[in-house]
Amino acid sequence: MSDQEKQQITHDDFNFPPGTVHLVDMHSSLDVKKGEGNIILHPQPSSNVNDPLRWSKTKRNFQFALLWFWSFMLALNLNFMTPLFSDWIVEFHTTYSELGVAVALGYLGLGVGVLFIQPTALKLGKVFVYRLGTILAIVACAMGSQSSNIGYFHAFRILAGLAASPVDTLVEISANDLFFHHERSTAFSSLILALYGGTDLGPVAAGYIADSMDWSWCYYILIIIFVPLLVLQFFWMEETTFRRPTGEEEHLEEEILFQIKSQEPGQSVASREQKDNIEVVVDSSSDDEDQAKLTYWQKHKLYHTEHNDTRSWLSIFVKPLYLVTFPAVVWSGMIYGFQMFWLSLTVNTQSEIYSGAPYNFSVNNVGLTTLGLFVGSVVGMFYGGPFVDWFAIKMAKRNNGILEPEHRLHTMLVPTILNAAGILAYGLGSYYGSHWAISVVLGLGFMGFAMGSSGAICLVYAVECYEKLASESLVLILFIRNMIGMGFSFAISPWIDAQGLMKTTFTMFALSVFVNGSYLLMIWKGKAIRRWSKARYEKVSVPSYGEMFKRN
To answer: Three-state SS for 265?
Structure first.
């Protein structure tokens, strides 16, 4: 295609708002790289042998598994201590309110950490930051094991929050590096399951450990796990950062549109070859002659700058602030942030509710109640991941192969209903002293499902709306989420003390219906908002935009 032809097509016909893409080749005629089911691969794998999208599916899944387990353990390290609260109140001479402050300080560490780890990772490599997070977690556990008063515990929570901050944003960027557009919901929901899985299963393990050993062994066992995990990171985890040409996605859409308009979509033989599965398409590309395959030691060195961001560290640090004018990003941050309301409600009330009358659970049984959240999160992961990816493809096929980000939002109906129902079952079931299955199985189960699914849906929605600002979008979303979580953790105990569990439950029920139900507004106006923000998106997504700290 000549430059003149591309320009004519672009100016006259290519009027997609940000986020709208051709996802399915409806007539099996487009000469582009595709996966199974004629799914067009976004982004298109390059011919560079070191491109993570050209790795075999086995290697990509192995690297993702390492990342998943690391995320699980860091989330567990931050949230395992709930069953120990009743013991610490006596031993530390403290109150549930003071322990609630400690929970809030963990979210403060997460929120602040998100701002600093992202530019560091984009300059020195993501694996560098993951290793640093593991080291900080080991230090935090060593500090926590020696706690003798609430001050030590506050310090542990801040450091544990800083260590876990990559779990909140950077792992999603790594998932973006490893998977294609149509696989994102599955990848993101898996990582959210790691987050909630660590949060939910940590208290179960801590309860059993504290029942048979001193509570300090909760920290020692974590250190025993983190040390070999750090070794794995040094010798097996690989860097996934790969710099792709600027404007690659727009050029792909222009090429697809040109092929459709010109009715010359490419040779039928080439089309049949492109219908092979992802691994065949990706691995069949020839290597660039000037791109030698990295050696083992090149892959596993301390830091990586080959494909790092060319902007200054400070410029990357402030760039997410420019996204506060993008409604889809702020909305996603609010939806994800309010999930911390429901999570904080359970974290801050679990021990007090189930260790007292009428339940009188032991420490390990208090920990077991989080299994309700975990089972719900697992089911929610399958709904918010594979099902939403499948649903998006089906919607694209009904739309002539074109995917709108809002297609995924239709699936928010189920988590909206179940989250509201779960809050009522948990709060009112506990208030009236109903059988524990009401609050644990129904209440925590429904809430776990909603948190496990809606988080992935809103994250993928924001990333798809503004693809070139994916990293900055995730930073702002997670900062908003953690600040909401921190504020609510400070407020929940005084709130319940002032209003009682019943009034608090009804207030949170109303908030849940209003906040999660706002997805209807985004379905209605989301595309118009993206079209309205297109000019600003194209301006802000230029790498040099806002660069005021670069040296001459």
So the answer is: coil
For tokens 């941050």, the residue is 333
d(CA 164, CA 109): 8
**In the CATH scheme, what is the code of domain 52-242+314-540?**
1.20.1250.20
DSSP code of 400? Answer: T
Q: Which of 328, 336, 340, 514 is nearest to 416 (CA)?
A: 514
CB-based contacts of 230: which residues, under 8 Å, 6+ apart? 131, 134, 135, 138
Q: What is the DSSP letter of 430?
A: H
Tell me the average confidence (pLDDT) per consecutive run of 10 residues in the chain, 552 residues long.
45 68 86 87 86 91 95 91 80 81 83 87 92 94 84 85 89 91 91 88 85 87 96 93 77 80 50 40 41 77 78 86 92 89 79 85 81 91 94 93 94 96 93 90 94 91 91 89 80 83 90 95 94 92 72 46
Task: Indicate the domain borders of the chain.
Answer: 52-242+314-540
Separation CA 549–CA 314 (nearest Å): 6
| Tokens found for residue 126 | 């993501």
pLDDT value, residue 247:
66
| pLDDT value at residue 7 | 44
pLDDT at residue number 548: 64
- Say if CB 340 and CB 488 are below 8 A apart: yes
Structural contact between residues 164 and 110, judged by C-beta atoms closer than 8 angstroms = yes
The answer to whether 87 and 210 have CB atoms below 8 angstroms apart is yes
Instruction: For residues 110 and 104, give the distance between their C-alpha atoms in angstroms, rounded to a whole number.
Output: 10
- Report the C-alpha gap between 327 and 480 in whole angstroms: 13
Q: Which of 160, 167, 156 lies closest to 197 in space, CA to CA? A: 167
Rounded Cα distance between 504 and 527, Å, is 36
The pTM score is 0.82
Rounded distance, CA 365 to CA 354, Å? 8
d(CA 381, CA 391): 14
Q: What contacts 46, CB < 8 A, 6 or more positions away? A: 53, 54, 242, 244, 285
Q: Using alpha carbons only, how large is the chain's radius of gyration in Å?
A: 24
In which element (H, E) is residue 402 found? strand 402-403
For residue 159, how far is the Cα from the chain centroid?
Answer: 21
Question: Closest by alpha carbon to 239, among 55, 460, 467?
Answer: 55
Cβ distance 382 to 229 under 8 Å? no
The encoded tokens of residue 354 equal 């189930």
CB 368 within 8 A of CB 428: no
Which residue, among 487, 492, 486, has the nearest Cα to 158 in the 3D structure? 486
Q: Which residues contact 493 (CB under 8 A, 6 or more apart)?
A: 96, 97, 100, 348
